[in-house]
Specification:
The protein is about 15% helix and about 40% strand. The termini are far apart. About 5% of the residues have low confidence. The radius of gyration is 17 Å and the shape is globular. It has one domain: Hypothetical protein, similar to alpha- acetolactate decarboxylase, domain 2 (60s Ribosomal Protein L30, Chain: A, 2-Layer Sandwich). It is built from six helices and 13 strands.
């Protein structure tokens, strides 16, 4: 079966279009849609930087420099295979146009404020990469779930937490304006991988000793909507959905 795609263009005349390709919505993930009909082999052709998860909610995706990594709840990092299923992910071909340095940033909230100040247009999304030394990282990876799938807020209660200190590595992710709530994670959604590519995860808290920030303004988003029974039956209009997303995703949204 074939899904469908939704194009949302924010490009102005004369601007080079930069694109985020997204599979499903954060709302469907929050509602327990952890399967799908889109494979990572296809996704790898849509971008070289990104975040996401896997079938059965089995870990965290970090895509950087064209390599796609799966971080399991054990903390183990594996290369993603082409046949793995994508229930939710966001990728882009990263072509940054804005650069800066950051030092001695304490907490996810403060990092968010520093990055937000660098956005000239707060009505469009941004792709983010930070390479550097991190004095503290609180990371998580989701545990593999079985059907019938629980809601994401319930699954997140079983998440594995990793605390890393004084490590080098790369943070990647996206920032979306809050009007994207239900489609993408509002505000920051960041994942991390160590320089030696041995572990990583979804960023819950972070202290940056020294980092190089690269930013890419995004002017077009393509969303692939799965053609599956689970997606069709999900309640994506719940008034409590955005609250559930904030609880499950953590980070600066809390």
């Amino acid at each position: 079966m074939l899904g469908c795609s939704l194009f949302i263009s924010l490009a102005f005349a004369g601007q080079e279009k930069s694109i985020i390709f997204q599979v499903a919505t954060i709302g469907s993930l929050a509602q327990g849609v952890y399967d799908g009909d889109y494979k990572y082999g296809r996704l790898m052709k849509k971008g070289d930087l990104g975040v996401g998860t896997f079938k059965d909610l089995n870990g965290e995706l970090v895509a950087v420099d064209g390599k796609f990594y799966q971080i399991e709840a054990s903390g183990k990092l594996n290369l993603v295979s082409a046949n793995q299923i994508v229930p939710f992910a966001e990728v882009t071909f990263f072509k940054p146009t804005m650069y800066s340095s950051v030092v001695d940033i304490v907490s996810y909230q403060n990092l968010g404020k520093v990055l937000l100040d660098k956005f000239p247009n707060k009505n469009i999304p941004y792709a983010i990469r930070i390479d550097g030394t991190f004095s503290k990282l609180k990371l998580r990876s989701l545990r593999k779930q079985k059907k019938p799938y629980p809601l994401l807020t319930q699954a997140a209660k079983e998440q594995a937490i990793f605390n890393l200190n004084h490590v080098t590595g790369t943070v990647v992710g996206f920032w979306f304006p809050t009007y994207w709530a239900g489609i993408a994670v509002p505000e920051f959604h960041l994942h991390f991988v160590t320089t030696d590519r041995t572990t990583g995860g979804h960023v819950l808290d972070i202290d940056v000793s020294k980092g190089q920030v690269s930013l890419q303004p995004i002017h077009q988003v393509q969303v692939y909507l799965p053609n599956t029974q689970s997606f069709a039956q999900a309640n994506l209009s719940s008034e409590e959905l955005n609250v559930s997303i904030k609880k499950a995703e953590g980070g600066s949204s809390q």
